[in-house]
Specification:
about 270 residues, alpha+beta, BirA Bifunctional Protein, domain 2, SH3 type barrels, about 35% helix
Length: about 270
Amino acid sequence: MRSSRADDGPQYADAIERARARLGSVASTFVFLPSTGSTNDVALARSVESGAAGSHGLVVVADEQTAGRGRRGRAWFSPPRAGLYVSVVLSPGSARVDPVRALSLVTIACGVALAEGVAAATGLEVDLKWPNDLYVAGRKLAGILAERASDAHVVVGYGINIAAAAFPPELRDRATSLESELGGGIDRAHVLVETLAALARRYDDLLAGRFDAILDAWRGRAPAAEGARVAWSTNAGAMSGVTAGIADDGALLVRTAERIERIVGGEVVWL
């Protein structure tokens, strides 16, 4: 395993090495950066340099992102040491069973894994909100951004709020952190390892075609996926309805007055 060792790098690298038996191919290569623009950009660039197949399992961790981003190009607030900023290269397109479906469920599987990993590391009850957010006590704790690196490979980036940082005004009432919820300091390396170990387990589910196990686990952690009012925009105009679960390919189902709509992307507003 290769690692750049600076600041928190040795602590993270040592924790990964101790957990090696639980990580499978995840973190086969580990890179730590005290600060970077975006861990996803670093992982994507390395995928290009080494070929996507050669970058599978790469994990990039940073203490700060100066250009972190979420879905639809939004900025992700990533101040120094306030969060855990991670990107992982996976190859769900190489799944033995239905690789197309495995690719379609990457974000769902990673959401489940992060919720399970945070719960294992902290004991907190973590909820999921479609398509890629983790919540604790009604406030956002973490988010996921999956980006294609090749036909078979995906860079999965996730950010977990660790410290009770001074969130921007627009986030103060909507975001939380592990320290805020637990009332004390957090072992960042432990959170990293538990989330990576859970990700490795759910990645194995994708490769083996255990899609129902992933979907059932997601549904069990997503109370807002049924019975919540939502609104979204289409080419035909604004629409609204009540959530009716998720389809087997991960699409959000919404019941309107006329029919059940499938939402596979775009912006959903939870009312």
